[in-house]
Write a structure and sequence with these properties.
Layout (H helix, E strand, L loop, with lengths): L1 H21 L6 H15 L1
């Protein structure tokens, strides 16, 4: 159960990094700001 929780927290940031590295797709500034707000709300 602990591993599943860890994977669910790590998956969204790693998906962004993989899209950046593999597809050379850079998210916009608004996307990064919104994503960081949502991630901070979930983690804290």
């Amino acid at each position: 159960p602990g591993e599943a929780g860890l994977l669910s927290v790590v998956e969204p940031p790693s998906a962004i990094l993989l899209a950046l590295l593999i597809l050379h797709e850079v998210p916009g500034v608004n996307t990064l700001i919104g994503g960081s707000i949502i991630l901070a709300a979930v983690l804290f």
